[in-house]
Design brief:
With 273 residues, this protein is an alpha/beta fold. Helices cover 30% and strands 16% of the residues. Hydrolyzes diadenosine 5',5'''-P1,P4-tetraphosphate to yield ADP.
Length: 273
């Protein structure tokens, strides 16, 4: 059995199928970890959802910011953005089953793989959060998404405040802060304050901010993440055990899988210009 972690699909269904074929992936034997953002921007968001959902227990996927955006549009009253490619999902006859499945996905997965404590979220992990604390905080959002108040939460989920984690946060501020760390984080300052404006490469860091993986941690947990296509799968200057997976398939880059036991990377090129 081999466990592969794959970066953001973002509707790149043809490349996803090609990558699985290249890996020789067999759902009866192998497993997939998907780093979130299954949908949006690419042309095959509906096909990606259907493909991943059909893999059943062979796949573990965490929620990314684009996945949550789809849920917020469908069930929280949010509006589509000009660049969204979610119409096919919203009009699909099986939309409710697919949305139910997506909404039940976790914010974080963690296992021992290849002898390493391995944790995956969409965007990374705040340096001050231990793996155990991160699991507990992710579970708070998961419980909200699975309950009767999920629609109200999705309606109020968006926002840049608070931009710094505090243990005494409560209510929607607490849940929003957890979501922002796990699905939107790129640059932070020494206090753990998030910047939400800079989204490009490392040279776009605002003054006083650095990539979250350049701040040391108190553990050696392997942190697997997607979200940041401009990194192209690299984490230069990292002071933690971080594995970047988003290699920008939807932007003309590639779709990348990481063998979590052997550490090998396999990629297929994007079919988009």
């Amino acid at each position: 059995m081999t466990t592969y972690a794959i970066g953001d699909l973002q509707g790149c269904h043809a490349e996803f199928v090609e990558l699985l074929e290249t890996l020789g992936f067999d759902p009866r034997r192998d497993r997939l970890w998907l780093a979130g953002d299954l949908v949006n921007r690419g042309p095959g968001s509906l096909d990606c959802l259907r493909e991943v959902e059909a893999l059943g227990d062979a796949v573990l996927t965490v929620l990314g910011n684009h996945d949550l955006h789809l849920l917020a549009v469908a069930r929280g009253g949010a509006t589509l953005n000009r660049k969204d490619t979610l119409d096919a999902i919203l009009a699909a006859p099986d939309r409710e089953r697919l949305l139910d499945w997506l909404q039940s996905r976790p914010m974080l997965v963690r296992e021992t793989l290849g002898g390493e404590d391995t944790l995956m979220t969409h965007a990374g992990l705040l340096p001050r959060w231990s793996p155990d604390q991160a699991e507990r905080l992710a579970a708070e959002v998961e419980v909200m998404l699975s309950g009767e108040q999920a629609g109200g939460f999705l309606e109020r989920m968006y926002g840049n405040a608070p931009d710094c984690w505090r243990d005494d946060l409560e209510g929607i501020d607490r849940l929003r802060a957890i979501v922002n760390v796990l699905t939107r984080m790129r640059f932070i300052d020494a206090e753990g304050r998030l910047d939400f404006a800079a989204k490009e490469g490392l040279d776009s860091a605002p003054a006083g901010f650095a990539p979250w993986f350049r701040y040391p941690r108190g553990d050696a947990t392997r942190l697997v993440f997607g979200h940041w296509a401009a990194l192209q799968g690299e984490t230069p200057g990292s002071r933690v055990n971080a594995c970047a997976l988003d290699t920008g398939c939807v932007w003309g880059g590639s779709l990348t899988a990481l063998d979590l036991e052997r550490g090998e990377r396999i990629s297929v090129p994007s079919r988009r210009r």
